[in-house]
């Protein structure tokens, strides 16, 4: 420790490595110019910086290694730093010690939580879920910038993590001889596949620009544990040689087309733990081959279509923790729900109605009974009324409802969920007005984040004193008609951030004038003015 970093092509691409043992410690290394240190002193940050550095040096090696790698990927890939992805990347790098009787993903999450408790990592619930950030003091305390000559000598025998903007231009002369363990590429040419597939020590490969095909030679990356591809619409499947990747733990595909199908050879990779298929429009589902139930180690399965007999096979995936099914229809809903009930280890469930899901009803949910340990539930599609079993899901911490078209205010049920921490209501309830009954005294006892998106919402009239006792983040999206924030907002002392995606000019004038008292205690207020009303 610490990490060293070298930058190529005007700092566009970065190469990170671990300092060889016996080299200078972080206390002997200054990576920040004195002018910046002076700025920190002027801001009163010197003591915080010193405390962070001291705490970092006291960490056991496995915690340092995990924090260092979190910095590498978060520094380049903030939008992909959801908690689950951090866990999978740490596993792929072999940074999580195996403990008898413990699931590795749980061990990794405990490590992340430990670093959060030490304030070296921070956890935020943003638009796409839980996001991990590295402390702002990390780079100033722990990172050593090296010149090219030092990089060549230090990188000779060190595992290297490379973030490359342009794979045509940003390569060091000794690239092929480096021990590249992580390779993240923004832009590449297909003629570079030979170079990529020649990296025999590669554990993580992430291609950010559109991939039209994978060559058969990708099967030569026999140590690969994590593969992320942003697929072109021209890409219809993966090569059969994918079966050679016997150590692959995570396969993550995005932006695929409706024509994409996984090859049956994927079933030969028995170490697969995470299959993630995510399309940004959420109206595309991947076709997985029959026999998926043989992947006994699978912990994550997202973005899949459960028709054609797949629904009944899911019950065999007894280790499954996270399941996301798209295009759920009456044709297979009964089999799907029967399978889900048997998944006793399931903690996260997402169901999306048939395309177009934003105007389609989900199948009847009343016959459904959720697994006992469910912590996260995401429902996309019409509900009309809340499922009668929802109040009994006592372990629920995250709930997201999209286009639910509810006829009654959902909070009448939801505010009594004892562990609910994050609630997203995306066009879930079509009312123009939210009243004080939205939350009673002591309602939503653990809720930290409330996200509301509603094109119809005009006014939130009042929040009763004693409601939302734990609320920290209040966010409004697509609420262009919202003209009144609630009386009583000023009484929520825990609130730290207010975000209004589209701030109506009338509301802006009130908050800048006579109603400023409602928000002046909130340290962060972000907004965008409605272009029409300016």
TrEMBL record:
InterPro entries: LRR_dom_sf (IPR032675), LRR_R13L4/SHOC2-like (IPR055414). Residues 180-507 form the Disease resistance R13L4/SHOC-2-like LRR domain. It comes from the Eukaryota. Keywords: Repeat. The keyword Transferase does not apply. It holds the Pfam family LRR_14. The keyword Repeat applies. This is Disease resistance R13L4/SHOC-2-like LRR domain-containing protein.
């Amino acid at each position: 420790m610490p990490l060293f970093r070298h930058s190529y092509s005007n700092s566009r691409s970065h190469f990170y490595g671990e300092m060889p043992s016996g080299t200078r410690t972080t206390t002997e290394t200054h990576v920040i110019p004195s002018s910046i240190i002076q700025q920190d002193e002027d801001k009163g940050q010197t003591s915080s910086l010193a405390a962070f550095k001291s705490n970092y040096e006291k960490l056991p090696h496995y915690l340092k290694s995990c924090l260092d790698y979190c910095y590498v990927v978060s520094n380049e890939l903030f939008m992909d730093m959801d908690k689950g992805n951090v866990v999978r990347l740490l596993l792929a790098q072999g940074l999580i010690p195996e403990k008898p009787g413990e699931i590795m993903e749980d061990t990794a999450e405990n490590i992340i939580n430990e670093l959060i408790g030490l304030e070296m990592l921070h956890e935020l619930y943003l638009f796409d879920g839980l996001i991990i950030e590295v402390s702002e003091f990390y780079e100033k305390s722990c990172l050593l910038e090296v010149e090219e000559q030092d990089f060549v000598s230090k990188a000779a025998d060190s595992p290297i993590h490379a973030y490359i903007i342009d794979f045509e231009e940003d390569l060091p002369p000794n690239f092929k001889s480096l021990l590249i363990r992580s390779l993240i590429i923004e832009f590449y040419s297909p003629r570079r596949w030979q170079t990529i597939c020649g990296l025999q020590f590669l554990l993580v490969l992430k291609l950010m620009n559109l991939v039209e095909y994978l060559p058969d030679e990708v099967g030569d990356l026999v140590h690969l544990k994590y593969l992320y591809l942003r697929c072109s619409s021209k890409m219809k499947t993966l090569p059969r040689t994918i079966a050679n990747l016997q150590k692959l733990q995570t396969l993550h595909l995005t932006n695929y087309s409706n024509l994409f199908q996984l090859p049956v050879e994927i079933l030969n990779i028995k170490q697969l733990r995470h299959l993630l298929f995510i399309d940004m429009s959420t109206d595309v589902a991947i076709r997985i081959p029959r026999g998926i139930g043989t992947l006994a180690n699978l912990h994550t399965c997202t973005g899949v279509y459960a028709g054609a007999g797949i629904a009944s096979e899911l019950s065999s995936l007894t280790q499954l923790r996270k399941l996301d099914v798209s295009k759920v229809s009456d044709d297979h809903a009964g089999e799907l729900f029967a399978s889900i009930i048997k998944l006793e280890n399931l903690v996260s469930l997402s169901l999306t109605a048939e395309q177009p899901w934003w105007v389609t009803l989900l199948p009847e949910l009343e016959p459904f009974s959720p697994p006992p340990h469910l912590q996260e539930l995401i429902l996309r599609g019409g509900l009309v009324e809340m499922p009668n079993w929802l109040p009994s899901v006592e372990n629920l911490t995250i709930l997201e409802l999209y286009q639910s078209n509810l006829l009654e205010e959902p909070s009448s049920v939801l505010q009594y969920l004892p562990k609910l921490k994050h609630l997203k209501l995306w066009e879930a309830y079509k009312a123009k007005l939210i009243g004080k009954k939205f939350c009673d005294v002591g309602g939503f006892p653990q809720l930290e984040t409330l996200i509301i998106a509603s094109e119809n919402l005009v006014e939130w009239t009042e929040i009763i004193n004693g409601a939302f006792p734990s609320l920290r983040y209040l966010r409004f999206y697509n609420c262009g008609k919202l003209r009144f924030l609630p009386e009583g907002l000023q009484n929520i002392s825990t609130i730290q951030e207010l975000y209004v995606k589209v701030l109506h000019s009338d509301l802006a004038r009130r908050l800048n004038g006579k109603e400023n008292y409602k928000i002046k205690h909130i340290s962060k207020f972000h907004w965008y003015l409605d272009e029409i009303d300016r």
